[in-house]
Amino acid sequence: MLPTNIYPFTVPANSLYRLTVAGQYFKIMSSTGDVEVTADFGRLSPLHTGQGLEDTPFSYLNFRDLSGAGNDLQVVIGDKNFVDGISGTSQVSKNVVPQSPNFSSTGKAVATASAQLVAANAVRQYLLVQNNHPSSTLYLGFGAPATLADGLKVVPGGFAEFASCVPVGAVHAIADAANGSVVVVEG
User: Fold this and answer.
1) Dihedral angle of Cα 23, 28, 30, 32, to the nearest 10 degrees
2) Which of 17, 60, 126, 133 is the most buried (most CB within 10 A)?
3) Could you tell me the pLDDT band of residue 101, with boundaries at 50, 70 and 90?
């Protein structure tokens, strides 16, 4: 049994591309123009995104560009039909962090009493708090004063990074001993 796979390829302008894969089902998931498809079953023309053939065995597929400008295709091939509910092109989103053109890095001193470390910023897309002190532990509070009992603990030499779920409210900090080695990076 052939697994269902997606095959990306480019057909040069007015040229032919042979895909030597056997199956019983194919569908053009994306294309930049119309193509003609020939195989053991005969010829289908013109075909474009969302079109294909099911329940028809083939041992190869020839794709001829009809657009005159070259054609980037993604074709799904398998030996059984499946329901995909997709027509047209689609994109798979990876966990991509939004990019910020403006990062700032600031050195801060943190005392043994809670104080605001970072002001609220509704458009903040990134925040990193690094504790560079060799022995003092840092505690962070979000939207409220930080405490040694329930703050987010940042050990000496450690950091807290927020890239995909970023706090936009004020961030407060307290240290268990005077700490002059905190770096805040914001974007």
Assistant:
1) 120
2) 133
3) low
